[in-house]
Recover the amino acids of this structure.
């Protein structure tokens, strides 16, 4: 197989999965939207780096340990993540209830936003499942064929995911700039979606 074609065999699926992982509703994307609506894109943008912080340990766990652990581990992780998402939903609800236009310039720091995003990602079963079922096998298969193929898969996945998350932040920042009434409404909607998703995480963790 020619080198160029070999790279594409691993790069294209990785880019596709990275885009899909970012665009679908999930704890991290909902958190990014909620923070963008409350604090603007500049304070929220550092949070897109959270997967680069969390996925190293997650990858090691998935590739070396996770496959041998009981299914209950993911269930408990999912329920813990649901509780944390409900906590974020409560914060968003309070921001909606006590909304003031001047909140635009007095949001939380980028460091705290990034830290919360890291916690969200650690407690989200999505990265564990993604590494166990998609990225991990794709990386290992590419690495065995040629180390460059494995790195191409990783680079394609994370570049696509980070750029998509950045685009989501900018899109909702534009919506936020339309005016305080729309901003308050979108904050309320994000609180509702966070609450629903957190409850869904907990319920499915019990029954699945």
């Amino acid at each position: 197989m020619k080198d160029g074609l070999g790279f594409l065999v691993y790069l294209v699926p990785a880019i596709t999965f990275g885009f899909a992982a970012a665009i679908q509703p999930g704890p991290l994307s909902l958190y990014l939207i909620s923070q963008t609506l409350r604090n603007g894109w500049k304070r929220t943008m550092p949070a897109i780096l959270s997967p680069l912080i969390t996925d190293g340990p997650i990858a090691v766990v998935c590739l070396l340990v996770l496959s041998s652990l009981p299914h209950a581990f993911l269930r408990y992780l999912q329920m813990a993540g649901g509780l944390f998402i409900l906590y974020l939903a409560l914060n968003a609800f309070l921001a909606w209830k006590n909304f003031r236009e001047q909140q635009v310039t007095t949001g939380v720091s980028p460091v705290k936003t990034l830290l919360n995003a890291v916690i969200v990602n650690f407690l989200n079963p999505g990265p564990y499942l993604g590494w166990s079922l998609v990225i991990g096998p794709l990386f290992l298969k590419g690495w065995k064929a040629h180390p460059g193929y494995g790195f191409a898969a990783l680079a394609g996945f994370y570049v696509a995911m980070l750029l998509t998350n950045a685009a989501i932040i900018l899109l909702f920042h534009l919506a936020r700039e339309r005016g305080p009434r729309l901003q308050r409404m979108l904050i309320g909607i994000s609180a509702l979606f966070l609450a629903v998703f957190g409850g869904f995480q907990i319920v499915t963790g019990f029954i699945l």
In short: Residues 3-99+126-207 form one domain. The radius of gyration is 18 Å. The first helix runs from residue 3 to 23. The chain has nine helices and no strands.
